[in-house]
């Protein structure tokens, strides 16, 4: 996902595992549909181990089920797999599509802004996305879950620190 500090690999693996777990949970909770649908596609995805095949399956899911409740999870897993393959062009393409559907998703905002920074292109857009991620995370701190769930609070605080570092880094590329 986003490169910050020496624990980048651990963060990427954690987020990838978390997203894969969410997809598995969605598939496990679903009833067997009469006709092939998103639940069937998610079940098939959960059984696949080849990253290239997973990427293809996720792209097909995006195309076939654009209104699925699982689409944000699909985008995030897809971006994680593309990041592992260091496919900056596809990250840009998929990330921009994801942001059209989910403009306030801080994970996607950070991923796309950082990806632009790495390529040293679209830096104005990178700053906009990085700033928006910081703003979205600040709003998270006003929500009840932030007050009630210490693990969520720690996660949001950690991501906020990373988001601010990302914003500062991208700004340094411009100046």
General description of the model:
With about 180 residues, the protein is mainly α. Helices cover about 80% and strands about 0% of the residues. It is built from nine helices and no strands. The protein has two domains: about 1-100, no CATH class; about 105-175. The two termini are about 25 Å apart. Helix 2 (about 40-45) packs antiparallel against helix 3 (about 50-65), helix 4 packs antiparallel against helix 5 and helix 6 runs parallel beside helix 9 (about 150-175).
The level of helicity is over 70%
Number of domains: 2
Main beta sheet, described?
Answer: none
Provide the structure class. Answer: mainly alpha
Mean pLDDT: 85
Unreliable stretches? 1-10, 12-35
Distance between the termini: 25 Å
Task: Report the order of strands and helices.
Answer: HHHHHHHHH
Number of helices: 9
What's the count of strands? Answer: 0
Radius of gyration: 16 Å
Percent range for β-strand residues: under 5%
Shape annotation: globular
Which descriptors apply to this entry?
single chain, 175 residues, mainly alpha, 2 domains, 9 helices, 78% helix, disordered N terminus
Could you give a quick summary of the protein structure above?
This protein has 175 residues and is mainly alpha-helical.
List the helices and strands and how they pair.
Layout: H1 8-29, H2 38-47, H3 51-64, H4 71-84, H5 88-101, H6 106-119, H7 123-140, H8 144-148, H9 150-174
Helix pairs in contact: 1-2, 1-4, 2-3, 3-4, 4-5, 5-6, 6-7, 6-9, 7-9
